Amino acid sequence: MRIEDIMTTDVETCRPESTLQEVASMMREINVGSIPICEDGRLVGIVTDRDIVIRGLAEQIPSDAAIAEILSAEVITGTVSLTVEEAAELMAIHKIRRLPIVANERIIGIVSLGDLAIRDDSSNHYAENTIIEISELD
Fold this sequence. Notes:
By secondary structure, this protein is an alpha+beta fold. It contains five helices and four strands; from the N terminus they run H-E-E-H-H-E-E-H-H. InterPro entries: CBS_dom, CBS_dom_sf, Diverse_CBS-Domain.
């Protein structure tokens, strides 16, 4: 199965100048754990709920600070040419729970462990194996 068959395509994004408060509120509103950060339509980073807590709150970054202060700029991405198995392997190798799917540096979708789990069948336990590998200590 190809990744485009399971990826979420209506991805909400924020800009680097969006505040921590705005991004956190958006996460709550749309019930997600990460928001891709785009500038002029190009993916420049990603922020997770954990980033907001660990890099923001714990470091006493003001809630009105730009999200650019805490985003992860080195984003592991995939393309629509990936199979579900290849995406799961990429997520496991890099110990990530969400994989943005890009074309020409623009986000066109995102795949989460939940997406893998929903589509998991009895012979290919991509989500289960991926979460085990993500959780293993280095």
